[in-house]
Design brief:
Elements lengths: L5 E5 L5 H9 L4 E4 L2 H10 L5 E4 L17 E5 L2 H13 L4 E8 L9 E2 L3 H5 L10 E8 L7 H22 L8 E3 L6 H6 L4 E4 L1 H4 L8
Parallel strand pairs: 1-2, 1-9, 2-3, 3-4, 4-5, 5-6, 5-7, 7-8
The structure holds pyridoxal-5'-phosphate.
The site of pyridoxal-5'-phosphate has 14 residues, from strand 9 and helix 7.
Length: 212
């Protein structure tokens, strides 16, 4: 049964004033998917919000957020994890990371194929990275109104999480997060074990562009 679920308020394309207003209402975690937009908002928002990065991230852009980002949901290679570790170490920080797993049918979604996480975790390199913590997994379901498809995909992420936890994180309590569910499917995600949901339009209203 659902325990406590964290809400990541996805503020992409929305003005800083929306973030400040949500913060006044008690929302602390905000998610952005573009490096430059995150950077601009980080400079403009002086309230003590927690920034999560949820978009596709190139290694050479990690440096722009390494000084302040608290969690990166979209780690899809060991190389990226290492780059985050290196930049975080320059700031003497530890950045929480989620490994993004490809659970959807669509080709366009990034992430590790479900069965490929072993390739990263079986080698112990990631354990030596002292400025990153792998705190869980993230996934995006297929964009469809077919609830059973979405539920099946979320269930596959939960199953993947349980297996990985058992194999590599048995005594590591911080490996505890499953980031799945957006405005259209967060209820299903929570039923299937999400610990973080990433909600944009249901909080801030529809965005003014397509396909994002
Ligand atoms: C935009 C986005 C969301 C939020 O989408 P909504 O449908 O507006 O809730 C969640 N996760 C990621 C990775 C996103 O890019």
């Amino acid at each position: 049964m659902p325990g406590e679920v964290k809400i990541v308020a996805v503020s992409k394309t929305k003005p800083v004033s929306d973030i400040q207003q949500a913060f006044q209402c008690g929302q602390v975690i905000f998610g952005e998917n573009k490096v430059q937009e995150l950077d601009e908002k980080h400079q403009q928002v002086h309230e003590p919000v927690e920034w999560h990065f949820i978009g596709h991230l190139q290694r050479n852009k990690v440096k722009y957020m390494a000084g302040y980002v608290s969690c990166i949901h979209s780690v899809d290679s060991l190389k990226l994890l290492k780059a985050i570790n290196k930049e975080a170490s320059k700031h003497d920080r530890c950045i929480d990371c989620l490994l993004q797993v490809h659970i959807a049918k669509e080709e366009s979604k990034f992430g590790f194929p479900v069965n490929s996480l072993d390739q990263v975790l079986a080698g112990n390199e990631w354990l030596e990275l002292k400025n990153t913590r792998v705190v869980g997994l993230m996934g995006m379901a297929t964009y469809t109104s077919d609830e059973e498809v979405v539920r099946g995909e979320f269930r596959s992420l939960k199953k993947c999480f349980d297996e990985i936890k058992d194999k590599y994180f048995k005594n590591i309590s911080y490996f505890s997060e499953i980031s799945m569910g957006m405005s259209g499917d967060y209820q299903v995600a929570i039923e299937e074990g999400a610990t973080m949901v990433r909600i944009g339009s249901k909080i801030f209203g529809e965005r003014n562009y397509k396909n994002k």
